[in-house]
TrEMBL record:
Domain N-acetyltransferase: 14-174
Domain of life: Bacteria
One Pfam short name: Acetyltransf_3
Signal peptide: none
InterPro entries: Acyl_CoA_acyltransferase, GNAT_dom, N-acetyltransferase
Transmembrane portions of the chain: none
Name the record gives this protein: Alanine acetyltransferase
Length: 174
């Protein structure tokens, strides 16, 4: 897949670009981190090969269809892959979902706010979206606080297909 045909974004500290198959080892680590498993859920990514299949099936399929998907977030100062942030067409939601996840050692440094802020601007200006959704578990106070800081408002508790957990749905007009 020619990822250079799709938009990447930059902030002062971050490069945010479409996730590639070269990111499979990082995606494997992130999706198996304790906080991912606790707050997002087990995606059954048991090997780097599974991560490659996940990237192709979930991320690249949507990227081809809509022009946006999940992105790998890279810290410019050392080129370290630190997390993901993306715009996701999620089953069970009426609008595109903004999602983010960072390796534990990169939390509470403002990276998620920085990445999500630039993607929200792109959602409005580049992709012409009028609104965004966000979902999180009630006990995930870090995500809930970040969503509030980004200007999202809590709407209701919901369940989405293939996820037994009750989620808090947030919404923001762009």
């Amino acid at each position: 897949m020619q990822l250079e045909n799709y938009k990447s974004f930059e902030t002062e500290r971050l490069l945010i670009r479409p996730t590639s198959l070269d990111d499979a080892e990082f995606i494997f680590q992130l999706l198996n981190s304790p906080k991912w498993l606790q707050n997002i859920g087990d995606r059954n990514i048991c090997s780097i090969k599974d991560a490659e299949k996940y990237i192709s099936a979930k991320m690249h399929t949507q990227l081809t269809r809509l022009g946006f998907s999940n992105n790998t977030v890279i810290r410019k100062s050392d080129q370290r892959k630190i997390g993901t942030c993306g715009l996701i067409d999620r089953e069970g939601l009426d609008s595109i979902d903004i999602g983010f996840a960072f390796m534990p050692e990169f939390e509470k440094m403002g990276y998620a706010f920085e990445a999500a802020s630039v993607l929200m601007k792109a959602a409005r200006n580049e992709f012409k979206l009028k609104e965004l959704s966000a979902i999180t578990l009630e006990e995930n106070t870090g995500s809930r606080n970040l969503l509030k800081k980004l200007g999202f408002e809590f709407q209701e508790k919901i369940k989405i297909p293939n996820d037994p957990k009750e989620l808090m749905l947030y919404y923001k007009e762009l």
